[in-house]
Amino acid sequence: MTNQRIFSMPFAKVYPLYVQKAEKKGRTQGEVDEVIRWLTGYSPTQVSRAIDQSVDFQTFFDQAPRLNPNVSLIKGVVCGVRVEEVEDPLMQKIRYLDKLVDELAKGKAMEKILRSE
């Protein structure tokens, strides 16, 4: 899949997959929402609006209030790619989100996922 196809994919199509992945491992939709809000600075209302309006990933991240200042602490591999080495800024943000959801699904403590320690 090309970057352009991913960038134009509606966030609303991927969001349920994030929730499903987390719930399969005993986590909650609320926790998925928490990591999304931590990464992007969106409020709960803003996340819901982005989903309802079916904005694409490009718009979702372009309109994010602020990327978390601790985003550089997100490291590791997701989908076979080391997130800290992704060159395209938008793709890197998408991979950061993928990585956070992966960590959630793997049972990592929320404090560690949100880089609070």
From TrEMBL:
Top-level taxon of origin: Bacteria
InterPro entries: SP1917_dom_sf, UCP033199
Gene3D superfamilies: uncharacterized protein sp1917 domain (1.10.8.290)
Protein name: DUF2200 domain-containing protein
